[in-house]
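Quarterly update, task 2.4: S-adenosylmethionine-bound model.
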Amino acid sequence: MRMRKMRNLEPRMEKCAAYRIDQPETLRGNWRSLKPDCTALWVEVGCGKGKFITETALLHPECDFIAMELVTDVILLALERAAALPDGCPPNLRFINGNAGHLTEIFEPDSVSRIFLNFSDPWPKARHTKRRLTYSSFLEKYKNVLTSDGELIIKTDNDDFFDFSLSELARCGWTICAVTRDLHNSTYAADNVMTEYETAFSARGKNINYVLARIPGES
Ligand code: SAM
């Protein structure tokens, strides 16, 4: 996601400090203490401007949500979107300005029930394969933090990235529980919450790919 340099970044980030977790490693092993009555922890990696995670958090007050985003200028927009809601940022949603590569330093094993990868950067050049968020080294991290019945849910407009992701999931022994190359015309459309990218791509008539996978050894 290309962004112009954000104006007043620091004071604007400061205004949203209550909704950020700046030292997530310190919460490793203690995520449940944030909201003990929550039944599950769901994480979006690469939340962009935050439409999906904010709407999903409102729909599921019983779950805890963490939105991770690498780019500070981008997460600021997600934070401001959540803060601008009539009741402010939902109490079950917090944001981490960080890299998915650190996932296992942030979450303890067997702690996350769902990971969402929505319209991840496809990194089409072969020399950048290892940067793709569905490359085997990332899948290994997701497997580490997901619960035994945990789910990895991927949506993308990029057919080549989707093919790559399906083959990496198969190579690493994940179980495919649901898959479609046309999410919006499928049985999975009813519960779908659109992301910013999804809204833009589907408005142009692009099919949206979707897969739900469980960690190796589960069905
Ligand atoms: N999920 C949003 C959507 O569907 O509208 C944004 C999609 S955008 C193409 C991908 C986002 O993932 C970007 O904002 C990018 O900064 C973020 N991202 C890429 N690599 C990441 C990483 N390793 N850790 C966290 N976020 C990452």
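Highlight for this quarter: The CA atoms of residues 47 and 105 lie 19 Å apart.
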